[in-house]
Design a protein that fits this description.
By secondary structure, this protein is of the alpha+beta class. It contains 4 helices and 5 strands. A 5-stranded antiparallel sheet has the order 1-2-3-5-4. Strand 2 and strand 3 (47-56) form a beta hairpin. The longest helix is centred in the last third of the chain and has 31 residues, at 123-153.
């Protein structure tokens, strides 16, 4: 995944990595300055939490979620890291293949910078945000503990030999999929986004 993520760095046409919005955007070139995938210090059972940190001059509408979705295919071994090269080459792949973008829940916009503009945050606003985030964290931890307790109360059903196991949907390679209708994307400003999956 990191090998594929490095391919996003630099200026590229990201029309195959966004949700189309032809009415608002005609330029799909964006400049990614940094894209790192790293492990966080948290685990849940056998699952590790990882972070994708992306820094760029601007992002198209849902660009980060689309990039993450393609990286998930790479991480699952369903696509080669080279698929990123093919999707960034608009002469080879002029229209976005149909695929579901990554969920929005773990997406965190960490900061925005604008030329000649400095943002200030009062200590009261900072404290209110900290208290809000602590409260949200507490509520989610409580919910997790409740679900964990509920799981311990359930018995594991015996497998039924008469039931057929569910078949996994076969992965269709991205470059073999039907393309999206020919439309475009939405512009933002200088941003850094961080995604946790």
């Amino acid at each position: 995944m990191q090998k594929a993520a490095f391919k996003f760095i630099g200026e590229h046409d990201f029309r195959n990595f966004c949700k189309m919005d032809a009415a608002n955007v005609s330029n799909y070139k964006r400049y990614i300055t940094d894209f790192n995938i790293s492990a966080c210090d948290q685990r849940s059972n056998h699952d590790e939490l990882w972070s994708m940190n992306i820094r760029g001059s601007a992002f198209l509408w849902h660009q980060v979620r689309c990039m993450a979705a393609v990286l998930f295919f790479v991480g699952q071994g369903l696509e080669s890291p080279c698929v990123v090269d093919s999707l960034l080459d608009i002469t080879k792949t002029p229209r976005k293949p149909q695929y579901t973008m990554a969920p929005e829940l773990p997406l965190i916009l960490r900061s925005c910078l604008f030329d000649g503009v400095s943002f200030m945050c009062s200590s009261d606003a900072s404290q209110a945000l900290i208290e809000h985030l602590k409260d949200e964290h507490h509520q989610y931890m409580l919910q997790a503990a409740i679900f964990d307790e509920a799981l311990t109360c359930l018995s594991i059903p015996e497998p039924n030999p008469l039931e057929h196991p569910k078949k996994k949907r076969k992965h269709i390679p991205l470059l073999s999929r039907e393309a999206e209708p020919n439309q475009c994307c939405l512009n933002t400003s200088l941003c850094q986004e961080s995604t946790l999956f």
